[in-house]
Input
Amino acid sequence: MNIRFACPVCDSPGEIDVPGRWEWRCPHCDHLLRLLDVDAALPSCPICGNGELYKKKDFPHSLGMAILVLACLASTVTYWLYDKWMTWAILIGSAAFDGLLYLWVKDVVVCYRCQAHFRGVAAHAEHKPFELTIHERFRQERLRREQWKG
Output
């Protein structure tokens, strides 16, 4: 399992491969982070202890948007040139390519609280897709913590 997260103290990026290391020292602030109980089923986040996790596709959103924009631009040009078959081929081909990418790309489990990404973990029934209401609750919690610090 590969875990990518931000340091709880200074927000610098960190990465741990489990099994292997159970501790991580931040290179920027020298904070020592000891992982909590790391279970293969991942019932809770070993970084912050939060039990609310979600799953998503491990795919960069910028690449997906670039594919969509290129397909739209190319189909607009071919439509302007009155080549309807090429326009449909571009649109249907980009949709088929998107579907294949969806099948090929694996899932990643993410913690709502600390935004740690867990790769190499099989998503279980407890790991639901992203819920905006849960995310907003943790975002508000994060904002309140920052207000207390300031």
User: Anything to note?
Assistant: Residues 61-104 form one domain. Residues 7 and 13 are 6 Å apart (CA to CA).
